[in-house]
Structures are given as structure tokens and as C-alpha cells.
Design a protein that fits this description.
- With 171 residues, the protein is an alpha/beta fold.
- The chain has one domain (2-170): Flavodoxin domain (Rossmann fold), CATH 3.40.50.
- The chain contains 5 helices and 8 strands, in the order βαβαβαβαββββα.
- Strands 1, 2, 3, 4, 5 and 6 form a 6-stranded parallel β-sheet that branches. Strands 7-8 form a two-stranded antiparallel ribbon.
- Helix 1 crosses helix 5.
């Protein structure tokens, strides 16, 4: 199974990046092929402007992927502008693909912020979402380490279900 993991935060100290890396580790242990993309390394322009070479490469990676995991931080109870640019410019070939969401937020009251990403993916490209979301807040981390046993257990369960359901959808 070829999985694209897009860490969509451009924050220097991205906690959603840490969630993405933890899921990557779990899926690699199950034999998945992972393409990991870090939005912090993609020079980007708004979608209505010229698409950069790195954005074009991401569009090709989306096309080649069997399924996609999107890591996001919460910004004003929604996805950040960089992730929205990448979605608009690079996801035209994501139609019908299976996807999952990993979210790191500053506080506990923004747990519904992932619904905006869900709406975008399901309405724009008719993608199929794993109903389980990993949601973590700043209290679940110590610097660049996930410290919450509960979040680590959610990552494990997310990875198991994403792998199992993703394989069934490809059969």
C-alpha cells in the first residue's frame, strides 16, 4: 500500500509534524510504502499563481498514492493557509482516495476544526475518510516528543485501522 503523508503545517516547531512522523513509523512497521512530504520544505504560491516545481511534484505524489494522511495544525478553527494552498493546487488527482487526519491544536476546544478539512476533501474530491482522527493539544507534548500515553495509543489505533481499511479498499 502506497501512502502519502502530508505534514501540512509550516510552523518551525510543528506538533502535527510529530504526529505524522509517529504514524509513519507505525505504518512502516506494517510494510507500507510511505512518501513523507513536509510542507515546510515546499516553496509555494497561492493556487491562482504559478505552481512551483515542488508543488508540481506533490501533485504527482498525490496522483501516485493509494491513500493519503494529512497532518494539520489549527489556525482560527480551520486549516492553515499553506495547507489550503497545497490542497487547492496539488490535490486534483485525489478524487475517491482514502484519507486520514492528524491534528495538533493549542487547546482542547478546537477539536471540531478538523471538520473543515473533512468538508474540503469529501466535497471537493469525494475522498473517503477514516472516521478516527488523532487530535492532540500542547499538553500532550514536551518539546519535540509526544508524551501522552493516550495520544500514543490513539496513534497506534489510527495506524492499525488506516492500514486495515486501506488494504480492503484496494482489494
Amino acid at each position: 500500500m502506497n501512502t502519502l503523508i502530508l505534514s501540512g503545517s509550516v510552523s518551525e516547531n510543528s506538533r502535527s509534524f510529530l504526529l505524522c512522523k509517529a504514524v509513519e513509523k507505525q505504518l512502516l512497521s506494517k510494510g507500507n510504502t510511505i512518501t513523507f512530504v513536509d510542507a515546510r520544505k515546499i516553496p509555494m504560491n497561492p493556487a491562482h499563481r504559478e505552481i512551483t516545481d515542488e508543488m508540481q511534484q506533490l501533485a504527482e505524489q498525490v496522483k501516485q498514492a493509494d491513500n493519503i494522511i494529512i497532518g494539520m495544525g489549527v489556525h482560527c478553527y480551520s486549516v492553515n493557509d499553506a495547507l489550503k494552498i497545497l490542497l487547492d493546487a496539488c490535490f486534483s488527482d485525489a478524487t475517491g482516495k482514502f484519507f486520514g487526519v492528524l491534528c495538533a491544536a493549542g487547546g482542547e476546544r478546537s477539536y471540531l476544526s478538523t471538520m473543515h478539512l473533512t468538508q474540503i476533501c469529501m466535497n471537493e474530491w469525494r475522498m473517503i475518510q477514516l472516521p478516527r482522527i488523532v487530535f492532540a493539544t500542547e499538553k500532550d507534548f514536551a518539546e519535540d516528543i509526544i508524551t501522552s500515553a493516550e495520544v500514543l495509543e490513539r496513534i497506534k489505533l489510527f495506524s492499525e485501522e488506516f492500514h486495515a481499511i486501506g488494504r480492503k479498499l484496494l482489494a
